[in-house]
Amino acid sequence: MPFTRFDRHVDRHARTFTERLQQLCRMPSVAARGTGMRAMAEAVEQQMRRSGAGTRVFKMGSGYPIIFGECGAGPRCFLAYGHYDVQPVGHLTEWSSGPFAAEIRDGRLYARGASNSKGDLIARLAAVETYQKVYGKLPVCVRFIVEGEAGVGSPSLYRFTQEHAELLHAEGCIWDEGAKDTKDRFQLSLGFKGIVFLELRVHGARTDLHSKWGAIVPNPAWRLVQALSTITSPKGVITIDGLSSHVAPISPEDQEALQNIELDEAGLKREFRIGNWIRGMRGAALVKEHIFGPTCTICGIHTGHTEAGAKTVLPSAAMARLDFRLVPDLTPEIVINLLREHLDMRGFKDIEIIELGSAPLAKSSAQSSVARAAMSAAQEIYNVPPVIYPLDPSSGPVGAVCGANTPPTPVVSFGTSYTGSNPHGPDENIRLEDFLESIKFFGRIIFHLGKQGRRESGIHKAYVASEHKK
Amino acid sequence: MPFTRFDRHVDRHARTFTERLQQLCRMPSVAARGTGMRAMAEAVEQQMRRSGAGTRVFKMGSGYPIIFGECGAGPRCFLAYGHYDVQPVGHLTEWSSGPFAAEIRDGRLYARGASNSKGDLIARLAAVETYQKVYGKLPVCVRFIVEGEAGVGSPSLYRFTQEHAELLHAEGCIWDEGAKDTKDRFQLSLGFKGIVFLELRVHGARTDLHSKWGAIVPNPAWRLVQALSTITSPKGVITIDGLSSHVAPISPEDQEALQNIELDEAGLKREFRIGNWIRGMRGAALVKEHIFGPTCTICGIHTGHTEAGAKTVLPSAAMARLDFRLVPDLTPEIVINLLREHLDMRGFKDIEIIELGSAPLAKSSAQSSVARAAMSAAQEIYNVPPVIYPLDPSSGPVGAVCGANTPPTPVVSFGTSYTGSNPHGPDENIRLEDFLESIKFFGRIIFHLGKQGRRESGIHKAYVASEHKK
């Protein structure tokens, strides 16, 4: 399919689209902090309207609004998920430029949220706008669902999926997670791991004490360390009683898909600056573990005095945050229950487990219409064939959104990022070249989704004619 | 000994002495932060001069000055140690009033440093001043050594003990550590545990990563937890290979002293708000462990994201701070070497051990002149007999100061604090009543030290006559 008029329009408006993205990136919208969220939600709605979408704003209780935008029409409907909140910025000193300066250097736009995932949102809206300017009406109905709580466990989105399931009826769902790999191969995911994010808390004396009491006063930090050390082995294997028996064997279809995935081990090691992977794994074993291995990650531990200055205290409390990424057939409930039993069995009944957030896993077939459209579009846009992930190692509320339909809506996911995007760390960035390519890619997906329908209804001639007018 | 004129002078000047203390407490002097240290050093020197001491200021390299003050004369010389720096304030929200407001409520002075240990410093200077105003010249030479780095490992004081050992020749040394116990019994210590304060560091990827990498990228937080869990048992016993064989058996003399020590277990439990002591110990076993048990305390752990907001990261680094309190015959070197071997043996060669500070232990006899003077003075001042600790569970550079002489200078230690003083936590405070009592106590110690000499030289009549003039 020649898509020259579309691409030319994108190239001609590259500066405009980039400036729109910069505008959004200059607005801090850290959900965990709560600053600037209202202004950001309004800006997102405005951008949607500019792209020709009819919008509705859903406010679930005291949560940040979900911006819902619909363009195109017809019985065939697809969801496009996005989020306008960003991760906390972390230590400012680690950033080369302000996290909300949206500075462009060497063709990269640096900003908290550029990669995760304001770049995707603006690119997809730009694609819809361009499509309509160049070809007229969209061939299918596209429903944007853009939330503001991706970084804090998406409570509003979960509620939304329950209260407005009718808006989620769709033939497919397009998520915004993904990045090119170290060899710059475009990645398409056909599913996501689930997640459960927990905080473990231990309490000791009412306040931090002078550490001279160390011989006789129980230290919650030691207790936490002893409890944690039973959860994984020194080799990094999860050792929670009974958990491994809940992990489903990998299906033959998925085994086959795994064979096409190659991790650029050397490139990633360089990128991460690490010497070895866990347990010295490599090759097929490494890929399999990455995609289908359940994880238990210590995301943070804090206890006592850790700032500058030698302060010898016996801490009054200790806490650890753990996230588990869930593969088939693990669920958040299974993990929490098994962990509770595991700790109780070892005398750690005093250790509190608080659930900070969770999401079920989502998984779909390569034969779904969204998967086929995305694969066709990727073949046209990218020089090398895309790498298909049967499961993305990351997680999100995608499980709840896709699960609103029975059977669950097929999902595909991809993003504007690359391996150097560092979406949860300092100097988050995207390459502007990738951003423009993303717009062109999303435009082609819309075209292919429409073509699938037209094949059945035979009404695709108008589009071809329109393109040939160029 | 009637000490009425001395006590009357103290009572008449109670407000002046209290205001001097407030003045010092209103000056922040957190060595770990470095703010206000110069002004505080000058204020200390001024207070010493006001008390009739000749002063010298020693600046060791770039450290905070040591203020040296000498009053009285004669061949018999005693050291009085103090420090003008204070601990970091911790979380401001946990304080009922500003840590440097020096607010007086219900007869208590609340301030960071009030208990640890500006109260002791001002009380001792006030005692020297009062003694001279009431009786004339001191009967012995008292040398104040007041440092500004007690909270950061006392590097200058260590250097001072090496470069100015001649100033440390003394018959006895009076330290400033100690507090009344929960039953308000005055405590006298005849020694201190040693200490070694370490930081363990583990490094992972070059930056915090998205935790979706948790199945394959090594997590330094897990590695730290696994390593730490081998250092103590779940029951709180230090399990470093070979360490217990370096702990000396308790001498018969110390066994006897232990029998006179009683921990107010119920009172302390209420104070600390804890249900049980380590391993459910109580009675004599608890006292023995508290005084003669080596400790390994996790003072702090930090890794990853622990602030508000659900940030699921795979941390790039993890660190723990451990302090070991050392009993006979453990030394900092023994602990560091054994810990290194212990970790290496278990495959944790990558875990860095950084020594943040250390001090040898100090221990002396109940028959020393300072011990006898302090016990006599305590019998006169306090209603109940003092409790003698053969070893104080706390530590400091006292080992280096006392070790400047051969044999080591006998040390006694006591303080103006009580069990509610919370010297390393929020709402640090002392009772003003204790503060005034401290002045009277220190005055009597000077008298008894002089009397010991006069017994030998027969020149004590002048003092008795002077007192009878009242």
Gist of the model:
The structure is a homodimer of 470-residue chains. Chain A is of the alpha+beta class and 470 residues long.
Describe this structure in words.
The structure is a homodimer of 470-residue chains. By secondary structure, the first copy, chain A, is an alpha+beta fold. Chain A folds into two domains: 4-193 and 361-468, Aminopeptidase, CATH 3.40.630; 194-247 and 293-359, 2-Layer Sandwich (Alpha-Beta Plaits), CATH 3.30.70. Helices cover 36% and strands 20% of the residues of chain A. Chain A is built from 14 helices and 19 strands. Chain A has helices spanning 4-12, 14-25, 37-50, 114-135, 155-163, 220-228, 252-259, 265-272, 283-292, 332-345, 369-381, 398-402, 432-457, 461-468, and strands at residues 54-58, 66-71, 77-83, 103-105, 108-110, 141-147, 172-175, 187-189, 191-192, 194-203, 209-210, 295-304, 313-314, 317-326, 352-359, 362-363, 387-389, 411-413, 429-431. In chain A, a hairpin with a 7-residue loop joins strand 1 (54-58) and strand 2. Chain A is globular. The two termini of chain A are 13 Å apart. Mean pLDDT of chain A is 92; it is low at 458-470. Strand 12 of chain A pairs antiparallel with strand 12 of chain B.
